[in-house]
Amino acid sequence: MTDEQVLRESSVDRFKKYTAVHGIFDGPLPRAVVHPSSAEQVAAVLAFADEHRINVVPRTGRTGTEGGLETSVEGTIVLDGSDMNAIIRIDVENMQVTAQCGVPLQVLEDTLREQGLTTGHSPQSKPLAQLGGLVATRSIGQFSTLYGGIEDMVVGLEAVFPDGTISRIKNVPRRAAGPDIRHVVIGNEGALCFVTEVTVKLFKHAPENNRFHGFLVDDVHTGISILREVITEGFRPSVARVYSEEDAAQHFAHFADGRCVVIFVAEGPKGIVEATSAEIDRVVAQHSHSPVDPALIETWFENLNWGQDKIEAEKETMLAERRLGYTTEVSADWSSVGAIYDAVMHRVRTEYPHAADLTMLGGHSSHSYQTGTNMYFVYDYVINCEPREEIEKYHKPINAIIVEEALRHGGSMVHHHGIGKYRAEWTEQEHGSAYPVLQRLKLAFDPNGIMNRGTIFPA
């Protein structure tokens, strides 16, 4: 496909949503958008691009937010797998499903839930995201504290490398036959290969057992302490979150009352839900708090996801009101995450020269582990500049402060959105002495450097 408007819109992702809504596409436009229908066609395109040194940007659902889908090189081919959209096999006995890369997650989940099953994967982009992109960006879902991230769900997969080699990693529950080579593919962001097929685990789905919990607490640190105790005691609610005062005011203005909001959802078999709920109540009772009507939490829970309708509404707001919001998500151990939060709040409020334009600065923890949690920073601002200046004036400097503080405190600069092109300058610092391991993967699998130049690996 070479239609000029298609090429323009295919040159960016949602990192440049403000310039895009104004029809501004200043970067190199792709030469063509190619829609393969099989792994063999993907292999043919990649082998051709490799031979002729043509940059390739793989994509499926187009929900990327970190510049990973930008065509930063002249003459790029955008390789779009969304036409490869078959659900190949639902294997109930072995509790796994195999699907092509272009299967929309919403379609897959709707099909599975008719059979009382779920993948457990539910990112906010669920109505639009497709399976290949979710694997390639190391996606995480809103129920990850119970089900894990996409890397915990993938059983096996198929991927095509730049020389046209089709590699299949077989579906087994576990093996100790050397390093886990699935992780060469999972999270590669199109910088090493193209994901064509994925097999993921299945779980029983029993939404009738869901229990919702909400509480108001006085500060983020108290909320993090509550999350930590529930998780490290061995309980796994599907949703475990704490929202800062500012972020809570944005989502829960009807009941937050200027305080932080802690949310839990317990799901699964009835006995597990009852035990998890009892533990949540036990832990929260040890802290100063006010309960929230569970019905309010359930209503919030049912309206989490972003479909095309919300994206279109956001575009209208950007044009009419010259304001927008972005996020930067990091992770750290329990003893560091609060310090990262405090440091970011302080630096943005005192050092960032355009802090007066911020209409909201806050964050929430939404994915927790035995050893730590994430912090999802949220920042909204009015735009007092020309559209072309917005990224340099607002988004990049705030993003940089968050990345710098996460790394300074020993955390990870990215929890689940991927490095893309706008955190790539910190990739070596992120990995430290392990960076050569990552670098050698690029040299081994993409020696001619045709795969998504500038993504993960600095250009």
List the SSEs and their pairings.
Elements: H1 4-9, H2 17-21, E1 32-34, H3 39-52, E2 56-59, E3 77-80, E4 87-91, E5 96-100, H4 105-113, E6 117-118, H5 131-136, H6 144-147, H7 150-153, E7 154-160, E8 166-169, H8 182-185, E9 194-201, E10 203-204, E11 211-217, H9 220-232, E12 239-243, H10 245-251, E13 260-266, H11 270-284, E14 290-292, H12 294-301, H13 308-321, E15 323-333, H14 334-351, E16 358-365, E17 372-382, H15 390-408, H16 427-431, H17 435-445
Parallel strand pairs: 1-3, 2-3
Antiparallel strand pairs: 4-5, 5-9, 6-10, 7-8, 7-9, 11-13, 11-14, 12-13, 12-16, 15-17, 16-17
Helix pairs in contact: 14-15
Task: Provide structural commentary.
This protein is globular. Helices cover 35% and strands 21% of the residues. The model has no long low-confidence stretch (mean pLDDT 96). It is built from 17 helices and 17 strands. It has a seven-stranded antiparallel sheet, with helices on both faces. Strands 4-5-9-7-8 form a five-stranded antiparallel sheet. Helix 14 (334-351) packs antiparallel against helix 15. It has helices at 4-9, 17-21, 39-52, 105-113, 131-136, 144-147, 150-153, 182-185, 220-232, 245-251, 270-284, 294-301, 308-321, 334-351, 390-408, 427-431, 435-445, and strands spanning 32-34, 56-59, 77-80, 87-91, 96-100, 117-118, 154-160, 166-169, 194-201, 203-204, 211-217, 239-243, 260-266, 290-292, 323-333, 358-365, 372-382. The longest helix is centred in the last third of the chain and has 19 residues, at 390-408. Strand 7 (154-160) and strand 8 form a beta hairpin. With 459 residues, it is of the alpha+beta class.
